[in-house]
């Protein structure tokens, strides 16, 4: 799994100010919907919020991984935001969330995205890694941390 | 006089040593019951103590009494809610399972050793029951939070199967001595008498005892003693009229432990101590009774019988008896493995000695050796095997002390300590949300009482004082569950066990499938919720920690309220290694 391939600096935001879970998902949807001829950010948002209705994608310790399968997009794509102020996300540990990685996957993809999600959950459960992202001052710095993790992690 | 003093000194010395020895034993994982047994052997005729103890009749008397108390205590600590999932399979294992284990293992002994069928059956019947003391102890030891249905099944089995083993042993002894003229019908009548007599007296006696405890005004310290004497009385009465005393004692304890309203917690705490005393005394005494050098002669045969029962007898019998209950294979494997033998077989092996069966001494040593190996091998490995089969839930029950208030107020006081690393840490008190009806009275931090305000953040090692209604068992169950949640371990091990995400069981299965599955679910029904689907796949016997595979995703039952599934974990396939 290659997180770098999912992510470009244009889809990372640092120190975003939002006041609710819903707003944070809207920001992520806008970042994810950049290509012409693909579903709009509204559609992506509906899919993400639909997933949250099943149960929060908050992993605990301030991290959330919203995700959805969306018809019409061409490739698996991620977006990462760090919030200036943590928002309540109904996470399992009831702690507010300030790191969010959203993943959208083409509808026709079978099981690959499950493995991608599992790998992301693994990555974001690394406390030191999350702290590095939290202490980053810029998008570039956040991107560097992810690249570095990618290079350091064995077997990828 | 000098002799009496010596005995008192010796008893005190051995007890103290046993209690102290249990600390390093617990740390190193050596089953503590083995330590008692070995200490007994060390004190015995060939050990350092040089104590001569060959009085089989006394050993039998004391052993039986200790077993009665241990079973009574086991009943006292079994919540009735555990019968919801464990009764059927537990009873099946305790009855048919015991017989099947005996027949299969005896077959192996006959084939391998060419012993006569009758003698082999007698030997195997003696060791056919699992040990309540060992099972209760190992399953409740700190650090092992087992899958609930598996634990309930094992506990109920071990509480109920002794009467069957005792019955088999007694009948076979009569047969071996050729005193038996009874027909198969007569046997069945006799077995029925044991079971029905024991159940009836245990039920009625337990209800009566509970009524007396709830009504009689007594000094607080006398309630536990009243309970203990009542338990012994019920055992004795049942055994006297030909019923099973052990079954009666277990049932009476079960009723008292669930229905007593006045002094339940002090009765339970007292019996904890008494049951420990009985276990230590029992195993020490049996260690004293055996002649260690005789064990070597029977070692090869003992190893073989243990092998036969662990590898063939128990697994086959368990698989057979659990067939109607459709347990997943992991649970069947675990239940097969936890067929721990304990004091019951050793006490039972005294029966043939007392009855004068030829070769009984050999059998006693053989049984002793078998139990020693079983305790060591299985006792040592219960926790790792549970982990390996992922039947261990990732949490630690927080230390909670239940205190009855001693006045008929229908409330109990619970003091619990917040474990380090629990998810509630740093959360404000207002977010704790104990179940409806439960009141948070006080918060004690480092020995000082701190005002209870909704904003106050919790810290590790904080003591919570809670008032819990005692009359409503569903509130207690919810409260227990709430405690479990507090003791949940760090997200890491939670994620390993329950999966990456948690979803509500009331969501439509179709919504779940749209996100996680690439193919439609063949066995899904329209408009089904995730909870309904899981219940159907689990044959309406869902229990926390149950796994159901859907496509490439695993659904894990994460939280239950009574019979309802509330939360479900989603476990994704492992990321590729390369």
TrEMBL record, chain A:
It comes from the Bacteria. One of its GO terms (biological process) is phosphoenolpyruvate-dependent sugar phosphotransferase system. Transmembrane segments: none annotated. Gene3D superfamilies: Mannitol-specific EII, Chain A. Residues 5-149 form the PTS EIIA type-2 domain. NCBIfam families: nitro_reg_IIA. This is PTS IIA-like nitrogen-regulatory protein PtsN. It comes from Nitrococcus mobilis Nb-231.
UniProtKB/TrEMBL annotation, chain B:
It is found in: Cell membrane. SUPFAM superfamilies: FAD-binding/transporter-associated domain-like. GO terms for molecular function: antiporter activity; flavin adenine dinucleotide binding; monoatomic cation transmembrane transporter activity. The keyword Transmembrane applies. The chain crosses the membrane at residues 6-23, 30-51, 57-78, 90-114, 120-139, 195-213, 225-252, 273-290, 302-325, 332-354, 366-386. Keywords: Antiport, Cell inner membrane, Cell membrane, Ion transport, Membrane, Potassium, Potassium transport, Transmembrane, Transmembrane helix, Transport. One of its GO terms (biological process) is proton transmembrane transport. InterPro entries: Cation/H_exchanger_TM, FAD-bd_PCMH-like_sf, FAD-bd_PCMH_sub2, Na+/solute_symporter_sf, RCK_C, Transptr-assoc_dom. Residues 400-482 form the RCK C-terminal domain. It comes from the Bacteria. It holds the Pfam family CorC_HlyC. GO terms for cellular component: plasma membrane. Its main location: membrane. It is a multi-pass membrane protein. This is NhaP-type Na+/H+ and K+/H+ antiporters with a unique C-terminal domain. It comes from Nitrococcus mobilis Nb-231. The lineage of its organism: Bacteria, Pseudomonadati, Pseudomonadota, Gammaproteobacteria, Chromatiales.
């Amino acid at each position: 799994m290659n997180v770098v391939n999912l992510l470009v600096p244009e889809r990372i935001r640092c120190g975003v100010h939002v006041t609710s879970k819903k707003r944070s998902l809207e920001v992520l949807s806008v970042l994810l919907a950049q290509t012409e001829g693909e579903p709009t950010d509204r559609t992506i948002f509906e899919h993400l919020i639909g997933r949250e209705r099943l149960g929060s994608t908050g992993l605990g310790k301030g991290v959330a991984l919203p995700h959805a399968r969306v018809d019409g997009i061409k490739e698996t794509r991620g977006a990462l935001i760090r919030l200036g102020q943590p928002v309540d996300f109904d996470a399992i540990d009831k702690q507010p969330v300030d790191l969010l990685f959203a993943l959208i996957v083409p509808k026709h993809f079978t099981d690959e995205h499950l493995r991608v999600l599992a790998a992301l959950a693994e990555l974001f459960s690394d406390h030191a890694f999350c702290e590095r992202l939290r202490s980053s001052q810029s998008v570039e710095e956040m991107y560097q941390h992810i690249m570095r993790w990618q290079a350091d992690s064995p077997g990828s | 006089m000098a002799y009496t003093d010596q005995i008192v000194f010796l008893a005190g010395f051995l007890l103290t040593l046993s209690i102290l020895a249990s600390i390093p034993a617990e740390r190193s994982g050596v089953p503590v019951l083995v330590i008692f047994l070995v200490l007994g052997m060390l004190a015995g005729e060939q050990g350092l103590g040089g104590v001569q103890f060959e009085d089989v009749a006394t050993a039998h008397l004391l052993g039986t009494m200790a077993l009665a108390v241990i079973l009574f205590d086991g009943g006292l600590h079994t919540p009735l809610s555990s019968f919801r999932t464990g009764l059927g399979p537990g009873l099946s294992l305790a009855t048919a399972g015991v017989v099947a284990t005996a027949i299969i293992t005896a077959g192996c002994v006959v084939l391998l050793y060419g012993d006569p069928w009758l003698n082999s059956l007698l030997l195997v019947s003696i060791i056919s029951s699992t040990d309540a003391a060992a099972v209760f102890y190992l399953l409740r030891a700190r650090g092992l939070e087992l899958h609930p249905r598996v634990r309930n099944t094992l506990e109920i089995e071990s509480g109920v199967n002794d009467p069957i083993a005792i019955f088999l042993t007694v009948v076979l002894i009569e047969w071996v001595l050729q005193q038996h003229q009874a027909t198969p019908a007569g046997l069945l009548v006799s077995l029925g008498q044991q079971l029905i007599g024991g159940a009836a007296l245990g039920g009625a006696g337990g209800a009566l005892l509970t009524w007396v405890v709830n009504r009689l005004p007594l000094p607080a310290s006398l309630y536990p003693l009243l309970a203990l004497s009542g338990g012994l009385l019920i055992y004795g009465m049942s055994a006297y009229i030909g019923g099973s005393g052990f079954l009666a004692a277990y049932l009476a304890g079960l009723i008292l432990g669930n229905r007593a309203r006045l002094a339940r917690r002090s009765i339970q705490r007292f019996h904890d101590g008494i049951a420990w005393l009985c276990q230590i005394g029992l195993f020490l005494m049996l260690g004293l009774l055996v002649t260690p050098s005789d064990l070597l002669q029977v070692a090869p045969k003992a190893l073989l019988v243990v092998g036969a029962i662990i590898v063939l007898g128990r697994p086959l019998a368990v698989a057979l008896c659990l067939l109607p209950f459709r347990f997943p294979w992991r649970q069947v494997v675990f239940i097969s493995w936890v067929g721990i033998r304990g004091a019951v077989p050793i006490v039972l092996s005294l029966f043939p000695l007392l009855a004068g069966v030829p070769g009984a001494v050999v059998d006693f040593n053989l049984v002793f050796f078998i139990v020693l190996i079983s305790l060591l091998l299985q006792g040592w490995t219960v926790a790792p095997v549970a982990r390996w089969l992922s039947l261990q839930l990732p949490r630690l029950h927080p230390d909670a002390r239940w205190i009855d208030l001693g006045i008929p107020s229908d409330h109990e006081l619970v003091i619990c300590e917040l474990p380090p690393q629990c998810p509630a840490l740093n959360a404000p008190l207002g977010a704790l949300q104990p179940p409806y009806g439960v009141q948070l009275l006080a918060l004690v931090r480092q020995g000082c009482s701190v005002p209870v305000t909704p904003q106050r953040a919790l810290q590790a090692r904080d003591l919570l004082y809670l008032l819990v209604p005692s009359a409503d068992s569903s509130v207690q169950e919810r409260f227990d569950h709430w405690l479990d949640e507090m003791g949940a371990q760090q997200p890491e091990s939670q994620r390993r066990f329950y999966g990456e995400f948690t979803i509500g069981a009331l969501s439509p299965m179709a919504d779940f499938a749209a996100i996680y599955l690439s193919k439609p679910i063949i066995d899904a029904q329209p408009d089904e919720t995730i909870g309904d689907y899981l219940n159907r796949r689990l044959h309406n016997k869902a229990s926390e920690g149950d796994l159901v595979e859907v496509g490439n995703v695993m659904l894990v039952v994460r939280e239950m309220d009574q019979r309802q599934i509330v939360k479900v974990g989603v476990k994704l396939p492992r990321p590729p290694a390369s």
